[in-house]
Amino acid sequence: MDTKDQQIFQKIQETFSSTDIRTVYAFEKLIGGGHFGSVRIAHRITDPQVKYAVKSILKENIKKDVKLLEEELSILTQVDHPNIIKFHETYIDYRYVHIVMELSEGGELFEKIVEMHRFSEQQAASLMKKIISAVKHLHERAICHRDLKPENFLFSDKTVEAEIKLIDFGLSKRFGQVLDHASEKMHTIVGTPYYVAPEVLKGNYDFSCDVWSLGVILYIMLCGYPPFEGDNNKEIFRRVLQQKLEFDPDEWSEVSMEAKDLLEKMLQKEPAKRISAIDALKHPWFAISHSDKANLDKRIFQRLKDFKAPQRFQVEALMFLVNNITKELDFKSLREAFRAIDKKNTGLLSLTEIKGAFRECRVPEEDLEEIFKRLDHDQDGQINYSEFLAATVDRKKALTMQNLWFAFHHYDVDNSGFITEASLTEVFHREGKYLNQEQVHEIMAQADQENKGKISFEDFSKLMKELLDS
């Protein structure tokens, strides 16, 4: 890499790993292309069973837009939601930036729309609730996606109960400080013609442009075609800006007034009058999906109550497992519990929400505060999705010998048979986690109880099995 390239990619180079990805992953088949690159299926060389999607971006193609890539990577490391694609690691070499992500094999929402032609209101409400919740999670973090379209939503697998996942943050942007008073506006015309909001075409917009795009997606889900059509982009743009929203009686006579009311609020041409993601989720139409009537499984409550992971390394390894071994561990009931507790649909649990969910179980308040502190590993005052999964997963199923080997190989980066301070530093680098040497040293010192300067598989296994007795 020449010096100029090094300067351009310096921030990514400093944040992530410059290890050769081919020493960690073996690439399988090509499955697609997105902004500036290709996407391939890959597996860890040490474990061919677990598959990932790796997006490889040619540096030559992104030099001029490296800020967009920095933004995308920064966003991917921040978000954590059941309906947003899970980011794992990033590697940078002399030609490419490789982003390792969760693999979703159920196909695009776009393909599903083509196949079904139109969705029942119940199907549409159930999906749209999850989709808006994911977008709200972004907006809460002052992130605007700017390219919401059915091609950017994938199903996790081909089963009926598959989760829907928002992908591709290539055009996303963080701006403003807080959701309620985003101080600045964005001015770049981006997005895809059918889904682009009128104010984006005028070059002065904020978060509400995402709500417009979701309105277009919902409209298509309910009738099979977009609200503003045209033979070319210019024609589509003209109609987006000028044409009134219409519901053709031939397609819409069977659709409820509530659905049309929500669409009118989402597809309001004036952004100031448009419904927000927060208020859209409270709309009466969503009562049709019955998805928030999940009963809290008493075992989940018991696991939350009993969760004790005295060491940061135990938590890191457990979170690695719940985010990587998704096929073997049944997360359906955990996802439903998370959504049931997450009353505000932010993709984060507050102490108030935890208290509300467990009040019926008659747990003393002080215990709940203690439980909350134990779960909130990054001490940001909220429990994110991965923290919740780590605390509520069936630990007997998660900590099998096979899974422990899988996790051990992840931390033993040079295949020496040991985890060291240097290998932990490299893993945190791959994950884009900002830990200084002192913090890494502390994690290692806690885990290395015999002070050997390295952790064998036997030591690691013993450390993780402590979680079974807690």
From TrEMBL:
One of its GO terms (molecular function) is protein serine/threonine kinase activity. ATP binds at K59. It comes from the Eukaryota. Keywords: ATP-binding, Calcium, Cell membrane, Cell projection, Cilium, Cytoplasm, Cytoskeleton, Flagellum, Host cell membrane, Host membrane, Kinase, Lipoprotein, Membrane, Metal-binding, Myristate, Nucleotide-binding, Palmitate, Repeat, Serine/threonine-protein kinase, Transferase. Signal peptide: none annotated. The keyword Calcium applies. Its EC number is 2.7.11.1. Residues 363-398, 399-434, 435-470 form the EF-hand domain. It holds the Pfam family EF-hand_7. Residues 25-286 form the Protein kinase domain. It catalyses: L-threonyl-[protein] + ATP = O-phospho-L-threonyl-[protein] + ADP + H(+); L-seryl-[protein] + ATP = O-phospho-L-seryl-[protein] + ADP + H(+). SMART domains: EFh, S_TKc. This is Calcium-dependent protein kinase 1. It comes from Stylonychia lemnae (Ciliate). The gene is Contig6633.g7092.
